[in-house]
C-alpha cells in the first residue's frame, strides 16, 4: 500500500512540479577501502551519492580512536594515522563474520601486516584492541562497520533533512550467511534496519541498468580496488541475477601498484644520496605523492613527483605512464588469471560474455582497462564512476523497494552456492 502511495506522490510531483517525497531508504556500499551512501531520487530517477562534510563521496573505511575517547572517521582518521597507528583500524571488512585459527599461516601473516592489535575470541572471531586513557578497549569488526555506517547516515540525513532508518547494503558475492549476518548487525548498531542485502556485482550491474537491456545474458564484473581483485560471472534471466562463478586475488590492488613505485623510488634515492629513507613523515609523504602521481597518469603520459624530505631534502622525479606500467607488468598480467578461472568454472568463453562492468578505483588505470578489453575483445561499460558503481546500484535497489517512481522493474538475485576460486601469485603464497 505504501509503495502505491509513493508512486502516486511521485507522479503528482512530476506533473505539478511539487517537491519529491523525502527518501526513506538509503543504499550503502560498506567497502574494504572506501565506503559510500546513495539515495535514489523519486521523480527525477537520478541517484545521488552523498558527500560527507569534507566533500568526499568515497569515504576511507578507516576509524581512529584517540586516547581521550574521541572517534574519527574517514579522511580525518587517515590524516592522523602515522601518529596513531595502533589505534587506527582499517580493512575491518576482511575480518567481519569470519572465524580464524591462531596458528593459521595466513592469519599470522595478517598479524604482521597490520600495525594495530588483532586478537581472537573463544569462537575464533577477530577483534581489535585499542589503548585509551581509561584503559584497553575491545572493538569488533562489526562495530567498526557501524561507526562508518553511522557517519554516512548522518551525512545523508543532513543533506535531505529527514531521518533515514532503512538501508540496502552491499556485500561481496562470496560472503556466507555468517558474514552477511554480521554486516547486518553493523547496520543495526548504527540504528538502521536492513531491508535487503545485495551482492556487489549485482549492484554494479544495476547501476548500469543492465537488468533492463535487451539481449543481455552473461555479465562479467571486474572489481579491482585498493587491495583486492574480484571477478564475478552473472547470468541474467527474466530479471533475476544468478552468480555463476567467482574468482579473485585477495592480495592484488592499487596498494600493490603503489608499492612497486615506492620500492623503485627508494632505490633511486639511495643511488643518488647514498641514504635509506626510514623517517615516518618522509615515508608518508612518498606514499601520498605516489598515489597522486598514479591518479595523474590516468589522464597524462607523464607526471612530476616533487618531494621535500627530512632525510635528503628536495627530490624530484619524472614518472611516465610507460615506466609505471613496466614496474607493474607482472601484476597487470596476473589480472587475467581470475578472469580465466571464473569463465572456466561456468564453461564459458570470453566471446560468450555480453557485458563487462568495471568496479573499483584501480579500474581507472588505462593498462587495467586495456588488459580486460583485450581479454574479452570488447569495451567495458563506462559512465558510472567505478568507485561509486556499487553504492549507485544499492541506491537503485533501495528505490525499487521504496517504490521510487519512475522505477517499475525490480531485479532479484539468487544466492551464490559454489565456492570462490582464490588465485595467488607465487610470491604471495604464505610458506
TrEMBL record:
GO terms for biological process: response to stress. Has peptide-independent ATPase activity. One of its GO terms (molecular function) is ATP binding. This is Heat shock 70 kDa protein 13. It comes from the Eukaryota. It is found in: Microsome. The lineage of its organism: Eukaryota, Metazoa, Ecdysozoa, Nematoda, Chromadorea. Belongs to the heat shock protein 70 family. Binds UBQLN2. CDD domains: ASKHA_NBD_HSP70_HSPA13 (cd10237). Keywords: ATP-binding, Endoplasmic reticulum, Microsome, Nucleotide-binding, Signal. Pfam families: HSP70. It comes from Acrobeloides nanus. Signal peptide: none annotated.
